[in-house]
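Protein entry
_____________
===
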Amino acid sequence: MSKYLLLGFSVLIFCTVGQGLICNVCNFKVGSVCLSSDDPCRTKEDQQCETTRVYRGSITFFTKHDCGKMIELCNKTEQRDSIFDMNYNRSCCTFDLCNGDVINQPSLTLFTGLSLALGHRAKEGGREGGREGGREGGREGGRKEGRKEGRKGKEEERTENEEGREKRKGRRKEGRKEGRKEGRKEGRKEGRKEGRKEGRKEKRRL
């Protein structure tokens, strides 16, 4: 009799294991409230009940309950969202309906918490965008100011060169004028000297 009972119990366990685990299903759960649920699923071979928590830092955005697709991902955390830096943490369990309770009635507190979380994320993004915009604006302003100062320096250099050329031209003109004046003066002096000399020669002949 005991052999038959043991055999029946073994068959019952085999049938239960062969049918797989029954797991809760929730596609989008915030806090303790599921906003998009489905009927419980039954796992296939080498599957377990899975809970996936999506979070960033200390803020949990939402949770998912389902039948795990890949058992090697159980109890691991991965980062799949490079834009918002969200982490996906999966935890698995091995008995029926072990992956969390599902409550299908949203509350005001839930939506308030979700709004605060999303608002915090938007605020952080706004600050980061503002800092990046400020740095970019500063670099652009610096480049413009540098080009402006460079053009101003070139203009001043050209002005100084023009003034220098004008001064050199004036000095050359003044030098030529003084040279001609001195030449005429020396010419007259030599002419008078030669005239007096010739006059004395003529007087001696007479």
About this structure: The two ends are 187 Å apart (CA to CA). The mean pLDDT is 78.
